[in-house]
Amino acid sequence: MHITADRKTLTDTATWVARAAPRRAQIAALAGIHVTATDGAVRLQAFSYDVGHTARITATTPVNGEALIPAAFLTSVLAGLRANEVELTVEGRRLTVTAGRSTYSTQLLSLADWPNLPDMPPIVGQIPAGLLEDLISAVEYPIDDGTPHDQVRGLHLEGSADELVAVGADRSFIAEATVAWAHAGDFAASVPSVGLLGAVRGLGDVVQIAWRDGLLGLTDGTREVTMRTFVGEYVPWRRLLRDAADDDVSIVVDAAELLGAAKRTSALLPSGTGTVVIDATQSEIAVSSRSEEAGGTEYLDATTDISDTPFTTGIAPRYLIGLLGSFPGGPVRIGAVAGRKPLTFRPLDHPGITYIVQPKRTGA
């Protein structure tokens, strides 16, 4: 195999493809990038059984062929080159990379163990890449792909004629975001979230979403992502959603100011413990935390609608800071009802996003 390609194009493509290669591959072949050269077209693939990346570029291919190149070697070498063009030459089991006055070589991985990647499933819709990126960013904070709880594992996506919905959750925190999309078929799937945002950022302007049972795909026509879906029913989060009109309490405050106050007051608490307490009156809120060693309170201007004043609630610091850190900015509306039912946080400038958080006892 012999390839001559634009160095920048090949570097960018190989770096994106390598995102799918596992850091600790149980099979040596999975630590590689599978490169195929055929009549001026070059395909690069990486696979972890959970996620696969495929990308295609045009190049000069004097000799067609295929090779399984160690991903770490290829990406690190390409990143350090400066010439406009780069050549990849395979002779036997050895690869030589040449660019300008630089030459590197390495032993190839065995092609015998390279698995076949799944084919892209049928297209069910499409969405601008930037909008999909925003959708994932809004809900990724609480997600833990490795959780033992099947109902909250991974990023959950649902597509219907009305909207595309993304949900991330753990046992005390649910994040939901919805956007309009070009619908071509309904689907529901939960997929690994690790690396997904980076993969989407490497796609073109418009992303097609593809799905069949067990597999979700994303493609811009040149690059493809395939992801196995998790088995099991996702948590029925819609049961916890409620209309803003049903809230007994409404507090509107600047999200950035609340985030700053939460960070400063929670810094007084022992790591991973305690509660940030929010006390609301008709014109302001007090954000505080207390421990045996120290305590602090900050007052923020707020617009409130409270039937019984004052109103007090508590939130785990990591949830409050995490959700506010995911906010796109601007004012946030906090909604509550009587009893220890979940709080809702909604950014007013982005009506498709809702965070649902279980409150903590304040000790008051």
From TrEMBL:
UniProt keyword Transferase, yes or no: yes
| Signal peptide bounds | none
Q: Which GO terms describe its biological process?
A: DNA strand elongation involved in DNA replication
Q: Give any Gene Ontology cellular component.
A: DNA polymerase III complex
**MF terms in GO:** 3'-5' exonuclease activity; DNA binding; DNA-directed DNA polymerase activity
Matching Gene3D superfamilies: DNA Polymerase III, subunit A, domain 2
From the record, what ranges are coiled-coil? Answer: none
Instruction: Please list the residue ranges annotated as the DNA polymerase III beta sliding clamp N-terminal domain.
Output: 1-118
UniProt-listed Pfam families: DNA_pol3_beta
Q: Where in the cell is it found?
A: Cytoplasm
Q: Which InterPro entries match?
A: DNA_clamp_sf, DNA_polIII_beta, DNA_polIII_beta_N
| Keyword Cytoplasm assigned | yes
Family per UniProt? Answer: Belongs to the beta sliding clamp family.
Q: What is this protein called?
A: DNA polymerase III beta sliding clamp N-terminal domain-containing protein
Source organism per UniProt: Nocardioides jejuensis
